[in-house]
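Hey,

Quick one before I head out. I ran the complex with oxidized coenzyme A overnight. Inputs first:
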Amino acid sequence: MIKEIKLPEIADNIDVATVVSIHVSVGDTVLQDESIAEMESDKAVFDLPTDTPGTIKEIKVKEGDEVKVGQVVLTVDTGDGGEEKEEKGEEKSETEEKDEVKAEVKEKIEVEEKAKDKEKEVEAEEEEEDKEEERKSSKKEVAASPSVRRLARELGVEIHKVEGTGPYNRISSEDVKAHAKSIIQQSGDKVTVKDDYELPDFSKYGDIERQPMDKIRKITAENMTASWQTIPHVFQFDKADVTNLETFRKKYEKVVEKEGGKLTVTAILLKITAKALEKFPKFNASLDFNNKEIIYKKYIHMGVAVDTERGLLVPVIRDVNKKTITELSVELGEMAEKARNKKIMPDELQGGNFAISNLGGIGGTGFTPIVYRPNVAILGVSRSSTEPVFINGEFKPRMMLPLSLSYDHRLIDGAEAARFLRWICEALENSLITMF
Ligand code: CAO
């Protein structure tokens, strides 16, 4: 019997779908629920299964065709009698042909069932082999001195997995180190960001609502976890007397405004920090930890943390050292606006060597931002305020700006960090800015 396979109802408000690809040809035998075509609606891509087993008789659509719900896609010969007419020139009788189809379908089902049984057998065998291998390796006699075993424990290396290169495969401390190195190299720079903590059932204590994290939240969470897990952070704090700088800022803000920018402490800090990075190139570098190399960059591109409705974004300002404060003020304003208006492009968020995070516009006396990998340091800026400062035997009211420097202790030592941050403070205090 010839049965028509039609496009079924897919979902509410969808009455048409496009043929992406056809998986069968005329003469093929298909089983119940076997996919015959890939279809695409404006909501999803899905497989179209046949609800009738048999032989494909006629395909009525082609790739790219739009098919309406209820329209015939193809016809199937079920091989169990019916109105099918004998085709011209066919030598076999109708009954013979149907018997053949039936036999073919039956055979296909049997073959598939056998294949499934075989697959299960192989899986069981493999499982047994794995267990055996595990048993063997846990019992494996390991030739290694107590000090080598201790080293392996300290490095988190399973000693029975180390290839011994000494006589009778004796494992040396060098073998353990080489094994540890190969593990690190295999894992590359990737850090598995996972949190095994099992959350309690909060609904026991009151109403809850679960919401999926949006893309930016997910990226920030992954990046911050990876940075925190891999970078041994140290934090350095200092304060800059920006009383004179404030006078400078007030004096020049109109000039910058005419050019379309806003002369803020962040723009000034961009300029000063770029100078500091030229003077202290390690802070502009990245660490290739696996190859034990330091990558010094000859350009100074800096990220600026921007608070947006969608969350934290860090657009990158390029060649900061080559730009004037006015240019930086204009560009910073434009970048922050683009980030907030969802106009920022992915490549504008990449390639920074160092970052500035200024929370001073909001408030707070200090904070310790996380270093963004692959940077090695970040400057945290808090809110400036007027404080009594003891100068030449008396307290004077001075505008003080609290700064913090978070840095990667694998590359930067405390004394270097203290010098770097002091340099920035002194540049702000002495209005070195006027000399740029
Ligand atoms: N101390 C005191 N006042 C400050 C200040 C500081 N450190 N920083 C900014 N201000 C003031 C500005 O002078 C301005 O005052 P007026 O409105 O009176 O002129 C106001 O705060 C707002 O500044 P701004 O935000 O317009 O300009 P900006 O260039 O200083 O900062 C930007 C730009 C993009 C850094 C900022 O808008 C922002 O988004 N900050 C948040 C960064 C963030 O989320 N960091 C956390 C990330 S976790 O690492």
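The helical segments are 94-139, 146-155, 173-187, 215-230, 243-258, 265-279, 325-340, 414-429.

Talk tomorrow,
K.
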